Amino acid sequence: MRLLASAALLVPCLAASAYDYCAKPGRPPVEERAFRSAAVDAKIDEVAAKIGDSTVRDMFIACYPNTLDTTVRGDGYIITGDIDAMWLRDSSAQVWPYLRHLNEDAKLKTLVRNLILRQFKAIRLDPYANAFYADEKQKSGWESDHTDMKPGLHERKYEIDSLCYPVRLAYGYWKATGDASIFDAKWEATLNAIVATFREQQRKDGHKTSYRFQRRAENPTDSLGNHGYGAPVKPVGLIASAFRPSDDATTLPFLVPSNFFAVDILRKAAEIVKATGGDAALAADATALADEVSAALAKYAVADTEEWGRVYAFEVDGFGGRVLMDDANAPSLLSLPYLCGIDRNDPVYVNTRRMILSSDGNPYYFKGRALEGIGSPHTGIGQVWPMSIIMRILTSDCEKEQRAALKMLVATTAGTGFMHESVDADDPAKFSRSWFAWANTLFGEAVLEMAEKGMLK
Hints:
Distance between the termini: 39 Å
Shape: globular
Strand order of the largest sheet: 1-14-13-12
Number of strands: 14
Strand content: 5-15%
Number of helices: 15
Structural class: alpha+beta
Helix content: 40-55%
């Protein structure tokens, strides 16, 4: 669901709760919070004391714990916000900033551990699905989609990043806690499913793939062309993704940011397997695939442009076709240093960043009277995603840029004190998704990092 809201008429929430998350700024009352973490609350108090601006401070207090306050549903099941389903991508990203607190809060550690195990189980159920229900018998409202829908799936849009985020989270959990108990036979079965899916989607057998997807919808990006198989590709070693992290169909299936993400998590997965004494052949297979995709990215993902120099394309097809743009949802080109281990001073990334943060270089960079930033075909022309502005903070070394981005975010919440999916560049009172926990938590992460550097006194 993607509805526009205004300050006068906000999008109704879809989750059952006595607390109106859409209309009231600030944290819900203690008795209404879905999950409580003493370690997170202590960190909020510590960081809030370092923030001089009262508006920024109040927003941090409300946004940083928003995932825990509002989206935890039972044993490791975390919804995205105003949609009562768990996305592999969103749920992973929503808890990521809390990894630093796990050793101080056993209850929080258990929550994240259970989430990871739930994600592994979901991937084993269907590595081509992006969103799931807690009840494995529940049927989806998207049951009419022309794809292999199963009970327990909310949606079956195949996206590379849906398989990457849970591995990133598991690796981060392991590094933060030293707990390797999650890496058992079921983990190896999950990793085998991920590697097998990626290899199938390298499309080395031509256009043959077990995955197809069609939907009857007004928006053409909700479905795939060519009878549900998407645009053709030349098998060059890259991995095809049917959909982008925005849940929009790719124009050209080799989605570059997601391939960079795959390389990073395959190497992390191989490290886990080796360190835990797992299947050496599986670790070698993951490493070999990462090396193959990395080499293909170096050869096919870089484009020479007259104005910007050598840049990363957003999508390619192996035939020479390329799409030069960026989409706000992560993984994006902008987010490469944050998510994929790319050096933010890498010359190609620096050129790419200049291109995508310009309306001359990126057709989805919008600048209006109220704010400017990267948007998405998902929300239409003129709608800037706060996530893209937050990502500027998290991928920049320039304090001036970070401060300007924060100022823009604080000024364009339409009085709610929360982040939204997208905001009209001219009128912040027009926005989509009033309850989008990932964006709220990501904002909290950015403010936390700025405060701990002494930037917000």
